[in-house]
Amino acid sequence: MAGSTVSIKGKDGNFNAYLSMPPKGGPGVVVIQEIFGVNTWVRSVCDMMARNGFVAMAPDLFWRLKPGIELHPFYPEDFQVALDYYGKFNAEKGVEDIQATITTLRGVSGCTGKVGNMGFCLGGTLSYLAGARTDTEASSGYYGVGIENMLAEAAKVKKPMLINIAGADPYCNAEAQGKITAGTKSNGNITVHIYPGLDHGFCRDTDPNHYNADGTKLAHGRTIELFKKALA
């Protein structure tokens, strides 16, 4: 499925996004990048969601640092560069850009106007923040980092949210997982799923060191089920 590049008008300037459109249109989903930019794998997630009937858009959230960054976790030199960008990234601005993307996606021809979001790694954390701070209709974050330090945001989540945690994630250990589970328990909109034994990045099928096919199928199945209900 071939996608296209579109421009989004943000608060601080214009930035690009990858758009993948199903033949008959459908609800919208913002796909939020990892620390590696909108790379081949992120575009493939958009295409996968389009095959499942969603209008999928992945914004370039690193545009303020350098537009068009594409890195890959299986190259050590790329991983170090990605960590450097991550250290310079402003999450507050990133959430603003996600809201701009949601607003733009609602107006795309073929989109029903209902929009959710899904994100991975950095994007998993931003998905959580987007669920608290934007007008998204649903959120599904995968192996977000640092959510245990942002639990005050949980009370602001008014729409359905999945938090998908890799059980063997070195960046979200058992203590952090316990804090997230306990800290979100009082909000019935939030569901936490822990995937025992799986590593950070388990959905990246371009990364054989981390990919787990069964875990990916289960997590994506839960996400698609959520979106089919919440974005109907």
Q: Bin the strand percentage.
A: 15-25%
Cα-atom Rg, whole angstroms? Answer: 16 Å
- The succession of helices and strands, N to C, reads EEEHEHHEHEEHEH
Structural shape: globular
Q: CATH topology, what is it called?
A: Rossmann fold
Structural class by SSE content = alpha/beta
Count of spatially separate domains: 1
* Largest sheet data: 8 strands, mixed
Q: Give the number of helices.
A: 6
The stretches of 5 or more residues where confidence is low (pLDDT under 50) are none
Question: How far apart lie the N and C ends?
Answer: 23 Å
CATH class descriptor: Alpha Beta
Global mean pLDDT: 97
Largest beta sheet: what is the strand line-up? 1-2-4-3-5-6-7-8
Which percent bin holds the helix content? 25-40%
Which CATH architecture is right? 3-Layer(aba) Sandwich
Task: Compute the number of strand runs.
Answer: 8
* Quaternary organisation: single chain
CATH-defined superfamily: Alpha/Beta hydrolase fold, catalytic domain
What order do the helices and strands come in, and which of them pair?
Layout: E1 4-10, E2 13-20, E3 26-32, H1 40-51, E4 55-59, H2 76-88, H3 91-106, E5 111-120, H4 122-133, E6 139-142, E7 161-166, H5 174-184, E8 190-195, H6 213-230
Parallel strand pairs: 3-4, 3-5, 5-6, 6-7, 7-8
Antiparallel strand pairs: 1-2, 2-4
Helix pairs in contact: 3-4
